[in-house]
Amino acid sequence: MSEWRAPARLPRHVAIIMDGNGRWAKKRGVPRALGHRRGVEALRDIIRESSDLGIAVLSLYAFSTENWSRSSEEVGALMGLVLEFFRREIDELDRNGVCIRILGDVAGLPAPQRDAVRSAMARTARNEGLRLNIALNYGGRAELVRAARTLAVAVRRGELAPEDIDEERLAAALDTAGQPDVDLMIRTSGEMRVSNFLLYQSAYAEFLFPSVLWPDFDREAYHQALDAYAARERRFGGRQDKGE
Ligand code: IPE
Ligand code: IPE
Ligand code: MG
């Protein structure tokens, strides 16, 4: 066990863009699918650690709406890992009180994955521990479009007036309805872009871009990120007068 102590100021909502599996594999001369497999191992530890630390919400970017454009071999490997993850992990996640939610268009997933994620959500819906959001077939723009449609339907039915649409109503129509905004957004592998992840919810998130590739992101790297977050000064557009 490490001597590390969780900082007093923990983020409520941590979002992670798990990037760098392909480069991890390339560096070792092994197939990309192996990099993804090691990536799943890394995420199991980060989920456990988030639970242990009492993080309220953890959002993991697993597959974007743009990732369908990868080779069918790679898409197949990733979809296979999705099934394997739920089959292997669901008992432990449930036992630990983790509540699973899928962000993204579940209806657009292949049938086996769709069934697996729906049953995981149903089984853990009443759990009160870590809220684990897994973004699958997710894009921030697509999510906003779906939310706009939901609100438009409510207006057409006469349940909502256009002038009643405010930031809160829009947030409530997103896949993260009822959850706090992202406090800390981490993207591994040194890439510094948001790649369509949680565009609305990360308006005032703190961003960290550690250079470590995702399969190597371990508890220690996570602790470093949480320490860096705790040292940040958040302003939300206001001023933080230091008593001068
Ligand atoms: C992230 O790793 C996993 C997914 C996008 C599914 P990548 O596969 O993007 O890895 P790199 O960016 O090629 O290294
Ligand atoms: C973002 O990573 C998506 C996931 C981690 C699931 P990508 O590797 O797909 O993003 P780009 O193409 O580098 O922006
Ligand atoms: Mg990538």
UniProtKB/TrEMBL annotation:
Belongs to the UPP synthase family. Binds 2 magnesium ions per subunit. Catalyzes the condensation of isopentenyl diphosphate (IPP) with allylic pyrophosphates generating different type of terpenoids. It comes from Candidatus Avichristensenella intestinipullorum. The keyword DNA damage does not apply. Homodimer. This is Isoprenyl transferase. Gene3D superfamilies: Decaprenyl diphosphate synthase-like. InterPro entries: UPP_synth-like, UPP_synth-like_CS, UPP_synth-like_sf. Coiled coil: none annotated.
